[in-house]
TrEMBL record:
GO terms for molecular function: 3-isopropylmalate dehydrogenase activity; metal ion binding. SMART domains: Iso_dh (SM01329). The lineage of its organism: Eukaryota, Metazoa, Porifera, Demospongiae, Heteroscleromorpha. Keywords: Amino-acid biosynthesis, Branched-chain amino acid biosynthesis, Leucine biosynthesis, Magnesium, Metal-binding, NAD, Oxidoreductase, Tricarboxylic acid cycle. Residues 1-166 form the Isopropylmalate dehydrogenase-like domain. Belongs to the isocitrate and isopropylmalate dehydrogenases family. The keyword Amino-acid biosynthesis applies. This is 3-isopropylmalate dehydrogenase.
Amino acid sequence: MAVLLQAGATSSISPSMSRRGWWAERPSTPTETPLTDEVLALAKSSDAVVLGAMGGPKWDGLDYSIRPERALLALRQELGLFANLRPVKLFAPLAQASTLKPEVVAGTDLLVVRELTGGIYFGQPKGVTTEPDWYRAGLQPWSTPRPEIERIARVAFDAAAGAAAG
Ligand SMILES: CC(C)[C@H](C(=O)O)[C@@H](O)C(=O)O
């Protein structure tokens, strides 16, 4: 937020921001959804959403339906945020700090492109079979339709082409 505000102060961008916190406003044992309709509507009407890290051992005991990461998953799904770009760049002075040999990690500069809205997180139907205990199995199908593969591949190839062009 501070960086965005600074960017706004030093450029023609004039961000108007609204901050909504799941953590700050919650009791330590919340009982409701981590993403309220109000926050979702606000996110949908915004040009951009900046999401901070969420989760932690303190909330491990919560029912899955109200765990903090449910908000993250719902936002991804509701906003159609299918592409996750995770750059991995090693700054030279940190090569010695890696558990990998410096000559192996030196110069690392890659982009992990991850699909976020298809696949296993949202695969249906999911659940646990009703077989006897020794044979019980968890089910969660992973299916990624062709258009979802194409669009994420397009993001990745466009990024690669952009990087190659410098
Ligand atoms: C919290 C979890 C659901 C999430 C994910 O795996 O998508 C996170 O680990 C991430 O990598 O963005």
